[in-house]
Write a structure and sequence with these properties.
Order of helices and strands: HHHH
Helix content: over 70%
Number of helices: 4
Oligomer: single chain
Distance between the termini: 54 Å
Strand content: under 5%
Structural class: mainly alpha
Radius of gyration: 20 Å
Length: about 110
């Protein structure tokens, strides 16, 4: 039973690791890594939902009658590109924060803000 739902268990584990890192870490780089792990768990979830057991690629043939839906896979490809662009922008902002404030620790940034 556990191995039948292995993908979903991995989604839950990765999601909780990412959420924990975002909430618990003070370093902005570590928070971004946590967000990336969380995002990856969502990708795995959508890909797992889109796969039909015993289904084939949606290419017309006379022998296949059960097809997997390609839409979740296509959407995830787009989401991966958007995720990479967002991560690049976030890392650029962290570089600017480091240059302006001299630190990337959240607690130190809040102390300097007051």
């Amino acid at each position: 039973m556990f191995f039948d739902l292995y993908n979903y268990w991995m989604v839950i584990i990765l999601m909780m690791i990412g959420l924990y890192m975002v909430i618990n870490q003070s370093n902005l780089i570590k928070k971004l890594i946590g967000l990336n792990i969380f995002q990856t768990s969502i990708f795995i979830f959508y890909i797992s939902v889109g796969k039909v057991k015993g289904g084939s690629a949606p290419i017309f043939s006379s022998t296949e009658t059960l097809y997997s839906n390609p839409l979740p896979h296509v959407l995830i490809l787009t989401a991966i590109v958007v995720g990479i662009a967002t991560m690049a922008l976030a890392l650029a902002l962290v570089v600017r924060i480091k240059k302006a404030y001299g630190t990337v620790e959240d607690s130190e940034l809040q102390e300097q803000d007051h």
